[in-house]
Structures
1.
Amino acid sequence: MRDTSSSKFAAAAGLGITLGAAFLIMLLMILIMSETPGKTIYFFFAGPWANTYYLGNMLNAAVPLMLTGLGISFAFRASMFNLGGEGQVYIGGLAAASLALALPGLPGILGIPLALAAAVGAGAVIAGLSGLFKYKWRTDELISTFLISNALIYIVDNIITGVLQDPESNLLVTRKIAVQYWFTRIMRPSNLDISIFFVILLAVIAYFYLYKTHQGYEMRMCGLDPEFARYGGVNVRTYFLLPLLISGGLHGLAGAVSFMGTQHMLFKGFSGGMGWNGIAVALIARNNPLAVIPAALFFAYIEAGAKSAMINADVTIEIAAVVQAVVFYLITAQALYSWIDRKHRRRSA
């Protein structure tokens, strides 16, 4: 019990140091780059709470990050590495858009679930391919998910600017989907919509699945020690495939939610890095589905603060990317150290 408490304390301390270092770097950058650092710092920290527009958009930006963070958490819990989140988000958005554009007259009560199901299915299939490759031929899923994702991004971009491009627009975008496919806004004039409630509920369901069901226990056991799980009678190879199917489905859903709730059309680069940011969100949350919610809000807060400082002061939006990158690398290094340390202890035991 003492070892468990000390390890949790060490993990919390490491996370605190990481976040503190990221904010310290941000403050140093502001002091160097800004001619009015006091004003910039104020708007960075207070700006996202200034009014319902900023607050709602911050919460809205966190929604797809919650989904990609959940997707990564499922994969990591089973020691499966999904680096293809960006492509899975892309294919999910494309699947939802294709269905919505193909069936513009379908009532929303039918069209929205069908579009979301198409997105989940497309993401699950793409990630599931890597799981299948590992199941059949022990292919490294870290490499296969990344390669498939990279190829998909170019393919989807070509479809957006080719077959689906809006001929009446001067931009490289698809046509807007019919209004009945749009999610209902709840904090106008911001873009926040009702999907935030369903995503939070999904995080609760994911927690219950991982920690309160037999299958979730087997998945976590495979992630902690596959050999022990095998001797315990668990079909370990099943958990080469299942976690990636779930992970890909959640990434595909993130693409659809972002597209149907906010953009209502697809354009090149519409995912905005949410697949990669989902990795950092999951690592900050230590792969706990409930902790993914505040972790995603933290990432969205950094970006919202940078936008507020850019509008009201004299820094650029890139400061958010730098802070997020610092968090990503430090959190990844911390997780890698913990993984190596666990492996070393397992071999020494």
Note: The two ends are 18 Å apart (CA to CA).
2.
Amino acid sequence: MSKVKITLVKSPIDKTKRQKDTLTALGFRKVHQTVEHDNNPQVQGMIRVVQHLVEVKQA
């Protein structure tokens, strides 16, 4: 299965609870942190919720 690298590029301050919870579920703790996940429908849906806060690259 392919991997995807996700980097948090904007702060979640003043965002909705749903967006903050999604970032936590993806494993983010601070800005400019990068996490790697399998590219599956669940992760793609989570990325879609916070697409304005993250940068995505295929690994």
Note: Residues 3-58 form a domain with the Ribosomal Protein L30; Chain: A, fold (CATH 3.30.1390.20).
3.
Amino acid sequence: MSALSPGTQGLRWKTAGESHGPVLVAFLEGLPAGFRIDFDAVRNELKRRWEGHGRGLRASFEKDELHVLAGLKGGVTLGSPLCFSLTNSDARIDTLPNLKAPRPGHVDLAGILRHKSRDMRAQLERASARETAARTALGAICRQLLAVFEIQVSGRVLSVAGIPGEQVETWHAAIDAAKASGDSLGGTLEVRAHGCPPGLGGFAQPVDRLDARLMAALASIPAVKGVGIGAGMAAGDVPGSLFHDPIVLDPSGWAGLGRSSNHAGGIEGGLTNGQEILLQAAVKPLPTMRKGIASVDLENMTAAKATYERSDVCVIEAAVVVAEALLCLELASALCARLGAVTVREMLVRFQELGKNESPADWPSDTAGLD
């Protein structure tokens, strides 16, 4: 356990619970005291996660009932750990049957090879994307904290099965066709953050780098197989003179400076640079399909089709909501670490001292002048 204060470390969070267990539980430590949380807004984000073309049967009955367990007084944070639960409407973990043939692309086979037990449900229940409901709620709370500092996060679908996101009717039709044939589809998404001050993140240690933390956060979403920041993989296709973002004088920019492009995606050297943060993620087709795919019945070791479990056809719109939540979580953590999250009032005072309206020409030319 680190001796650093929550304000120095930023936020820490954990979740617990299984897809068909009684509840999901979320724990968030490091929020400042004096922060009033709008839980109706949190519930709206949970509802958004269930929306989208291609969602399965569970979206029609799962309610995500939220119960705060600790950390509040009169709806306002105390500075102590916040804990809440989300009730599962479908809580049949003890009676659901085991899978006979593992699904390629899911945790099924890798999990049983690890445990040396054919009980696939022992792994898949926790590895399920159901867990992202808890992180969506955590991110919704952090979105509200970011809003206090006028930082906004948004996201959108870039493509579905190669079809551009703007062609909504076309990719809706593709999802319908996949559902009819018992198949599944993936896609790509984008998330952005506007209004972040420069200097969030770090470079003293590799794990401090905000770009690494953001990409890891998006990669932690089940089904995400690729993440990019700024120009992403295209960064390797052009010379440096065309890739790097020229620094220009900009009276409206932070400290009177700006950029004429944003190929870096708002982060350089592990730190935010005042530009818009931009990330993309590729979401694979879901591994559970009615039509099945080649697998092996592990009880008698014969060829078989992968076992089918109730599932979605496409989750790209839900993945956008989760990606937004994780971007909010990481940015709020970096902001709390930068400002020292003891109280909201202290954070606001320190935010005003970050130098937005100052000129670098007035700053010391040597760190010795910072004492």
Note: Residues 364 and 370 are 7 Å apart (CA to CA).
4.
Amino acid sequence: MNRRPVYSKDVRERAVRLVLISEHDHSSRWAATQSVASKIGCSPETLRAWVNKLEVDSGAKPGITTDHAKRIKELERDLSRA
């Protein structure tokens, strides 16, 4: 059975920073994502999701933030127990 590798928070943050910094050196953000992903050993799609999550959490992109999603899960869990 295949296990998904677990990347530390530090590795994820560094990889996202590299994509955002090196984006201008590539033809597109996807090209930068592919380049950085190959260097750290994750899939480009995984890294793309990390970049998107950072943009939502920072308010640069619309969506549900990580903290908000966590709070919703807690409330749903509380409702199911009641």
Note: The domain at 9-81 is CATH 1.10.10.10 (Arc Repressor Mutant, subunit A).
